Amino acid sequence: MYIYIYIYIYIYIYIYIIFIYFIYLVIYFFPPCLQCKDKAAMQPMNMYMVPNQGIPGFPPGLEYLTQVDQLLIKQKVELIEALAGFESNNKYEIRNSMGQNVFYAVEENDCLTRQCCGPLRSFTIRILDNFGQEIITVSRPLKCMSCFFPCCLQELEIQAPPGNTVGYVLQQWHPFLPKFTIENERREPVLKLQGPFCGWSCLPDVDFEILTMDEVSIGKISKQWTGLLREAFTDSDNFGIQFPMDLDVRMKAVMIGACFLIDFMFFETNN
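Request: output the structure for the sequence above.
Response:
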């Protein structure tokens, strides 16, 4: 009798593994298109943007940001996360509105921190150009994430190039609304970020408004709906960033870092 029980258990596990693997294949090979007003974003994604020559007065590597008012950040699906829920280092592709890869971002963390602290973990994310040159470093210290502890608010430092701080993202305490202040390298407030109630929205996309210090909206960071299977079985997310073309490239780099912080704080909990 026991041998039949073992056989049933074995068959159940086998079917479950096949089912999860099928879901992964669907997610990996048939991802929904990133939302973009420009239809050219539907073009093949194997193109990459060649970096521009250095421009005097701009941090090396950020020259291309002078030409864009929109970026798409696509988190890569990891097989081990889809199958076992094992938290791995996050990896992102940063694209322009034409679907061309502009930068790559890779989290640098150890296994113990990822598994024990989950989305609360400290991290260093290194942003590389298409030639593997590190141009931006994003650092987040470990802090308690709770609206009941206003003394332990989230903070992010952005360096471009590494070793040269260009700005900070600071969480502002509020019992219900996600609010952040964007500071320049001199710790002077420059912009604000504000999200929906508790970082949640009944709409497929979740928007975090980019505001001036006078509360005028000039852009947004949008968490984009990626499809039922991807949302249910992974913590892989897509984001869109819109900002003025003439915004300082240093602040554009800070907005990329803010996007990663928003991802960890509100959308890295599916596992």
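The chain has a mean pLDDT of 79.
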